[in-house]
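Table S2 (text version). Query chain:
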Amino acid sequence: MKIPEERLNEALRKNETKLQIIAESSQDYILMLDLDFKIQYVNRIELGFSEEDIIGVPLYNLLPKNQQPFVKIIYEEVVETEKAKTYETYLTTPDGIKRYFESTAAPIVDEGNIIGLIVNTREITGRKKTEEALRESEERFRLIAFVISDLIYEWDVKTDRLTWFGDIDGALGYKIGEVNHTVDAWINHVHPEDKERLTAVVEHHRETGDPIDIEYRICQKNGSVRFWMERGTAIMGDEGKPIKIIGTCTDITERKQVDDVLHLSDELLKQMPDAILLVDENTKILRWMGKAEKMFGYSAAETIGRHVSLIQKNSDDQIEIEKALDLTGEFYDEIICIKKDKTEIPVELIVKNIYNNNGERIAIISIYRDIAIRKKAEKAHLEYLTYQSNFIHMISHELRTPLTVIRGYAEFLGKNIEALDPVRTKQSIKAIIKNIDRLEALISDVRDLSLIEKELFSLNLEIFNFIDFLKEIISNYRIILKDQLAYIPHVSDVPIFVNGDMVRLQQVFDNIISNAIKFTSEEDRKIIISLEILRSDIRVRISDNGAGIDKNIIEAIFDQFTSFRTTYSVKGTGVGLYISKEIMADHGGNLYAESAGIGKGSSFYIDIPFIQTDNNPVS
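Corresponding structure-token output:
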């Protein structure tokens, strides 16, 4: 049954206020259609349309002709099934822009009858363009990887089994599964003149684990010959022998047959990841190819005829290159280059002579490969190894000291227990307990550090009165410090509540106060704890008149294993401040330090948010 248009307009008038509120608050386009799917209402008119373009026009007529039947069928199904449907469309709006939309059409029901449709339309042009760009990027990456990808292998030395990552069958011109994955089978594909040399390298590597770095020729199924470069690194077993070798095989035929490279089209060279330069006898640039412009920032017009030193940081590099070319006809090494914007870039450089039929050098070809990502990974790995070494050294040293003391006192007690008076016995036991406490603190620090590294560190939060918490800490330390510890509250003595982990916060205060004790002279020590309220945080300042901190390293004291030693004979793991800062960060607060310099004391600031409530007097 078709409901007259007047019925829809009446429904619109009845719900005008609700509709206006919804429409004005929505970022989407909201349209009301009658049962002929003509637009009777739209919450706003944009994108270059006028009211005459829209009102009274079937909504699907605004779309390209190829989409109109599809959308009309969707509207008819919504009316027939009384269920909403979502669909995507696009159109070129009067402002000349192709836009994409996601729409949901739902029935408008009045007194049990469908009187029209409501369509909620959201523009998704940005999302579509992102998806399209991602598809294009993935396709470009797939094509480039197909053109230039190396073959990676894993060699099980015990079984001589080779596992290939990459299309080894295709690389040799075979169908999938035709190439046998053993070392002997692989050597059988090597050019007869290179087999003996490669076999010797393989056997030497099998025994010693020395790196593989060799070039040889490989024979494809159809009889053609390719030049390959192989590099491998061993994984050593417990007996000092290699158990696995991980390596790569790179097809370097284009580097070997440079005459063919010169005839490759610029379009093919652009797909390669390397910058390729052809230079003359005077090392002036003749051609600027491949990814040269992208890698170095210069256009071909800016480089042709200029000396290759334009992009090389060190002049000595070119001297070494020319020496190698004179002796062997080729050069391979890693050097630092300079881009147009003066930034440095590490590259793997291969340089080879090009000869004519008479054996005379006529040009030089240079291939530059960007290895910045690889170098960054190598640096990160080295830093990790250094970190690991420092950690092991620090832990072994810190464990040895209290263990030595405990052993000494224990042996002393064992030998003299019957002759010792009670005072000496108590002193020895006290020293043992003190060093056990030191060991427990060290183990606790290492455990906390491990949790932080694994991102498993967590807090047991509870709401408590921070003023009472701070007073208890001060009271405990006054037993030790007496009048050497002063407390200056900057607010009236009213409760201030925080949501925190009392144990972890106690750990932070213990770390800061114990450092203040360690780095101050016992004779004239003065430690001041003050409290003030900021806009949303409580700030506790712990100041001392001790050794102070060099301004140049004050930020570094919160790094792992940084122990700021001074003239005081104090040792430690250097992780306490790092862990304390992490604890405060997890509370949404902060921990930082100030010092006027060595010998001028230090101040540490602990900030923690307090709970903002109407009942909190501070709020």
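Notes on Table S2: The radius of gyration is 38 Å. The longest helix spans residues 372-416.
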